[in-house]
Structure formats: structure tokens, C-alpha cells
Amino acid sequence: MSVAQLLWSPELLRYDFGPGHPMAPARLDLTMRLVEALGLLDAPGLEVVDPVCAPDEVVETVHDAEYVAAVRRAAETGEPDVARGLGTEDDPVFPAMHEAAARLVGASVGAADAVWEGRAQHALNIAGGMHHAQRGAASGFCVYNDAAAAVQRLLDRGAERVAYVDLDAHHGDGVEAIFWDEPRVLTFSIHQDGHTLFPGTGNPADTGAGLHHCTAVNVAVPPRTDSARWLRAVDAVLPTVLREFAPDAIVSQHGADAHGNDPLTDLSVGVHAQKTAAHWVHDLAHELCDGRWVALGGGGYAVVDVVPLVWAALVAEAAHAPLTTGMPLPTAWREAAEEMSGLRAASMLGRGEVSWQPWSQGYDPSDPIDRAVLATRRHVFPEFGLDPYLD
Predict the structure, then answer these.
(1) Within a domain: residue 391?
(2) For the domain that residue 92 is a member of, what is the CATH number?
(3) Is there a catalytic annotation at residue 98?
């Protein structure tokens, strides 16, 4: 058994909406260049596996057949289908759209298979995490929802409970909607308040469709939330609800767009904090489900100074070869990144550790992050028989 599988192929770079679009394939190219420059591809426990393009029957486990046909048709003809989100500013049509998006699904489903079959403790698809796609429509740079497909694959293979953890700055609305009334799935999303950021959803009162059964947990944090407060919010909710839910596997989405340098969001969560959260998810996978952990990429549009750092650290975490915050980054990678982008690359992995206060040290009603956390706890914790103030 491998410690971790990394589902990767240059074919994943074909998911490309064209010049000027924020979802630039350079995010992935620079990440894999950094992974290689750091020597992670030679880590003893890491195996790189070439993903396959998911067939329609796999894509259709989470999407309507009519929608899959519409994606194929739009890609072949170049004609938009705005009613299904295809050919919009967020999701322009491109010739390889179906195959490229289906390969993302294939990678995430392959990762799910690897951990469920015991071929790897953990598996990663950094090109995945397309969490906005709905059953019948593209949305927010996402054509097919590979994250939901990975969750569904685990259910189909026999998992009784799967936890989905979304750390992207945007609400994981597509995954939540697909499993809204599915008691075997718990979706957790910490994101910038939907009143201030796309997709405008993810309120703390949104806990799923089940009667007396929570299937969705939403922590909506205010703009300008920093690393310390973000970590406090994650810690105040995620470990408790996951321990109560007791999943057989965890699928997590690690969009890097909560960083203060991201051009599309208003949070200020540094590399170290995002790396810390990935470590927590990793630990919870070992504690709760024998290490069965599928980790995905997601959003993130600071393509030189943030995304490669966060996702290289994620690969290292899954390979049990964690990187040190503040470590210098390889000169050759920095030079290549600057030549490719014309932008200045980061010289080190983050800027130092973050001091934060756990919820157990007390609730501060004057702090907007504490009010946001308490709103979630009030809606969610009683459904698990927990006290929102004390547990």
C-alpha cells in the first residue's frame, strides 16, 4: 500500500477556458513544477498515477444525462447553452471541455477507489475540487463536479458515511446541493459570507433537508477574516461535528483562494493557516476512518505566490513528508515561475506560524468571527445533541 497516490497527468492542463480566465492551467503547471523541485515525487510513500477520462456513466452519477449531452454538444459546436451555464463569462465553451472536465472526474473517482480499495491511505487530485457545478448546470468555473463524484463513488463502493470538507473561500454549493437530503453525507464548508461573495449561499441556518438530521454545516466568515480567526473558526466546528458523524472516509477540497493575495476574494488566510487546516483534516482521517482521505484542489487565483505553495504543501502532507513553514523555495523553481508569468515568485513557504485561540478559551460577543461561529454552532450542534457554547 502506498502512503499516498497523486493522480496527475499533463492532460489535466487541458481544462482551459482560454487566455485571461482566472482558472489558468498555469496554477497546476507551477504546482507540479514545485512538487518536483522540492523532491516530493521521490518521497518514499508517494505514487504518481495517470488518471483516466471518466465515462459518461460515471459522470452521470452526479449529473443529469441531458446535461452531459449538452456539454458534449456545446464543446462540439461551440454554441453556448446559457440556460445550463455553458458559454457564460465564468464558463466559456472550449473544444476539449467535455473530455477535460471528465478527466478531472476520473482523477477524483480514481482517488476515491484507491483509498477505498486500500491501495493508498490517501489520494490527491490537485486539479479537482470543482465544487460549484450543479446536477444540471455549470457554475463558477466548474463544468462537472468531481468532488461530488468522489463522494458518490465512496458511497457506491460501500461507505456508510462520507464527510466532505470544503476549505475554499467560496461556499461549496454544488456538493451541498447534490447531497442536501442524503443522510450518509455530511458537507462542511467554511467560506466568505455569501452576502459578500459568489455564490451567495452557505448560511449557517442551511443544515440540509433531513428532519432532525444535519447533512450540511456552513461557517460563513466575514470579509477580512485573518489566519488566526479562520483557524479558530475551523477548530470550533469541524473536529466536533466530524467526530459525531464518524465518517468512513473524508473528501476534502483545498481551494487556496482564502489567501489575502487572491484577486477574487476578501479573506486574509495565509499559507501556514491553510497548511495547518490540511494537517488537521489529515489527522482526523487517521483518527476517524483509518486514514481514508481524498484531497482535492479547487479555487485559487494567485497563481505564482499562493496556489503552488498551498498545494505542494498539501501533497507533502498527504505523503507524510510535511514542509516547514518559512522554508526557502528552490531558486530554479522561482526563476521558472517568474519567466512563465512575468510576476515575482514567493521566496519562502509562508511567513511564519500563527498564534490563535481555541473556542474553549471563551466566546467573545464583540468579535464578528465568534458571532459567525456561534451562529453555526447554534444551528448544528443541537442536532448532534451538543451544547453550542460548551462542547
Answers:
(1) no
(2) 3.40.800.20
(3) no
